Amino acid sequence: MATVELRFSPLPEHVRTARLVAAAVARRAGVDEAVLDEVRLAVGEACSRAVGLHIGHGLETPVRLALIEDEKAFRIEVGDDVPQAVRGPAHGSPGGEGAENDDEGDMGLAVISGLVDDLEVTADAHGGLIAMSWPTAPEPIEP
Amino acid sequence: MGLSLSTRTVGDRTIVSVGGEIDVYTAPKLREQLVELVNDGSYHLVVDMEGVDFLDSTGLGVLVGGLKRVRAHEGSLRLVCNQERILKIFRITGLTKVFPIHTSVDEAVAATD
């Protein structure tokens, strides 16, 4: 069971909420303060991509975010409901019309892969799954 | 937090000051502003990002779209940014080679190609 799970309607306005929750849980898990900006950005990118995929495929089912804390790492999973088989090249952006939007989903993945060393882009029973993890600082030793 | 936008003119440059978070929800507002400026004949834009707290790839896409529009009119789009966490996103996407990035509005206004 994840430490915190969040399911939200595939709407752009909820992506900020997902970022805030992920950053709060990451901070509590002991992720270095200097890395929190990266966590926030990577989660935002993964959730924006999932929202875009749901909208592009006319799905109203929620995007799934799992925040998992263990002894050495903080892991984030973002799941969508779009099976790998039906993904099209132009379905990664919720941003609207215009040629500059077509590659935003891919640009989001490019940003994530630039930010996160431990990244897996896989699939589960529902659809696509982006899993990322960051090391956590060891517990401070009490004096 | 939403997105704040304000514009002013210095010579032939239009300064767009952006504040808050540019993400998948707010980026369309910035896109509308840039499209409106270009449609109104402002082809030399300076986007001041000093008040931006967060920028994601959707925001990058809007800026690239703005650049494409002004270039169609032989214009320019310059950025003002000193924040490391924002600059990092331009670096990892290679967009530092695409956008002239300045440390101040004055520097961006004075710059020529």
Structure description:
The complex is a heterodimer of chains A (143) and B (113). Chain A has 143 residues and is of the alpha+beta class. Chain A has a single domain (4-135), classed as Heat Shock Protein 90. Chain A has three helices and five strands, in the order βααββαββ. Chain A has helices at residues 15-29, 33-56, 104-115, and strands spanning 4-8, 63-69, 73-79, 118-123, 128-135. In chain A, helix 2 runs antiparallel to helix 3 (104-115). In chain A, 41% of the residues are buried. Residues 95-102 of chain A have low confidence and may be disordered. Chain B has four helices and five strands. In chain B, strands 1-2-3-4-5 form a five-stranded mixed β-sheet. The model of chain B has no long low-confidence stretch (mean pLDDT 96). The interface between A and B is medium-sized, with 29 and 22 residues.
What global shape of chain A is seen?
Answer: elongated
Give the number of helices of chain A.
3
Within the CATH hierarchy, at the fold level, what is the topology of chain A?
Heat Shock Protein 90
* Strand-residue proportion of chain B: 25-35%
**What is the 3D shape of chain B?**
globular
Helix content of chain B: 25-40%
Per CATH, the superfamily of chain B is: STAS domain
In angstroms, what is the radius of gyration of chain A? 15 Å
Helix/strand/pairing category of chain A: alpha+beta
Tell me what the CATH architecture of chain A is. 2-Layer Sandwich
Q: How many separate structural domains of chain B?
A: 1
Termini Cα gap of chain B = 36 Å
Report the count of strand segments of chain A.
5
State the share of residues found in helices of chain A, binned by percent: 25-40%
Can you tell me the CATH topology of chain B? Transcription Regulator spoIIAA
**What fraction of the residues of chain A are assigned to beta strands by DSSP?**
15-25%
